Amino acid sequence: MVGELAYAFINTFLIFILTLLGALPLGLAVYFGKKSRFRPLKWFTEVYISIMRGTPLMLQVMVIYFAPALVFNFTVPGNWRFSAVIVAFIINYAAYFAEIYRGGIESIDNGQYEAAHVLGYGKAQTFVKIILPQMVKRVVPAVTNEVITLVKDTSLASAIGTVEMFTKAKQIAVSPRSPGMLTFLVAGVFYFVFNAVVAFVMKRIEKALSYYD
Amino acid sequence: MHILDIQNVRKSFGDNEVLKDISLTVDKGEVVSVIGPSGSGKSTFLRCATLLETMDSGTLQYMGETVASMEGDKIVYTKDLKKVRGYFGLVFQNFNLFPHYSVLKNITDAPISVQKRDPKEVKETALQLLGSMGLADKAGAYPCQLSGGQKQRVSIVRALAMKPEILFFDEPTSALDPELTGEVLKVIKQLTEQQMTMVIVTHEMAFAHAISDRVIFMDKGVIVEQGTPQELFEGTKQERTRQFLQNYQR
Questions:
Q1: In what order do the strands lie in the sheet with B74-77?
Q2: At A60, phi and psi to the nearest 5?
Q3: Which range of residues forms the domain containing residue A141?
């Protein structure tokens, strides 16, 4: 049983890491969309963020998974069951990250922009060299929260039958001669240990960024 | 040719007219202090001159080059502001050092990445300036490890490293306790000896008296009076100036 769960955990980890790789940068793009002076883009991002935050991730996973077939009568090639989870997770988490980034950026003193301005830095230079590094440091605690939530949210992939650890645990638990509750206990230990590792890594990142202030 | 020539500046925030037709010219090597009560518009004036605020109307020239001019009753700023920004430096009340950069990087980054100067030359200049301000051992420190007075001296070095024609100070000692104020004023005094052109907004009357070639007294958005320190501090003709200065007599 532990072996089966461990094998299914590979998918859990894949969902986790692919979501982060997609959502962390996409969140920045979403932030820029929200700050855009081009009104339609601004409105679009605002509606997008409110839908992502206002509806359950499980429902979003289902909509993304079924929409191509049911709405467009189109079969997505490849392993859509898995890809749909990744797409849904990325666009959901990007919305949260965008808001976290916004909080971080808006907390930076206006004097930083003014100093950069007087020193002749252009807009892009100011953002990349002065604002972004300070923002990253400030958002680490909030991002850590999200990342830990993400570890647990991976189990929502089971809503459409994507086989990750939680789906596997359910299958094992109802199989003949199942170890019963023990299955969920072991799965719980997996999540717990994974999150302990995540928390440890994030702590290290926080520490590495604490070379100033 | 004047280093700075700013004429007929008007600036309002909503209904509040902060600057009502202010003009100032500054020549090479001149040290001009701007004094006046809080809310008199001194800082706003400085911010207009350093392009942190756009004027509602008025004209602005650095080194004879037009930065802002009037076309009818509309103000027009030149497109090439990057070049203009190289002419002046500004020292802020709250330093505004970049906390994630070391002292050295705070000073060298803009000359290297904005002015595209030779990194080696910039670094040498920076270290030499730091040395002249008693900060030789702080090059590798981060701003959070410095005292207020040290931070302000670093921010003065940062401005000087850009090789500006004129240096503006916006209440450079107002965020410092009296003990640290002295070390910053000493550095500014040192700059007057090097013929640095400077405009200093300050509440340090004795200091303004000692180092200025010219003192400007502002109140309620206008220049009430200007002249040599002697003329202003010892023989003012204006009742308003006398009132203001009385509060500073000890």
A1: B16-26, B4-13, B57-62, B65-71, B74-77
A2: -60, -40
A3: 2-212
- CA gap B212, B88 in Å, rounded: 19
pLDDT tens sequence across A169-204: 999 999 888 888 899 999 999 999 999 999 999 999
Distance, CA of B240 to CA of B247 (rounded, Å):
12
Neighbours of A116 (CB within 10 A): 23
Chain B: give the shortest CA distance to residue A120, in Å: 6
Mean pLDDT of the A31-52 span: 97
Could you report how far apart the first and last alpha carbons of chain B are, in Å? 40
Mutate to test the interface with B, among A108, A118, A209 (most CBs of B within 10 A): A118
Interface contact flag, B52 A125, Cβ < 8 Å = no
Tokens of B135: 């900060």
Q: What is the pLDDT of residues B93-146, one digit of tens each?
A: 999 999 999 999 999 999 999 999 999 999 999 999 999 999 999 999 999 999
Pair B89, B167: CB distance under 8 Å: yes
Cα separation of B226 and B232, whole Å?
7
Tell me the two tokens of residue B242. 């006398």
Count of structural domains within chain A: 1
What's the CATH code of the domain at A196? 1.10.3720.10
Model pTM? 0.90
Q: What gap in Å lies between CA A13 and CA B99, rounded to an integer?
A: 36
Rounded to whole angstroms, what are the CA distances from B219 to B11, B20, B157, B169? 14, 10, 31, 18
Half-sphere exposure of A193 toward its Cβ, with a 13 Å CA cutoff? Answer: 9
Contact across the interface for A118 and B85, Cβ inside 8 Å: yes
Q: Nearest CA to B48 among B62, B27, B64?
A: B62
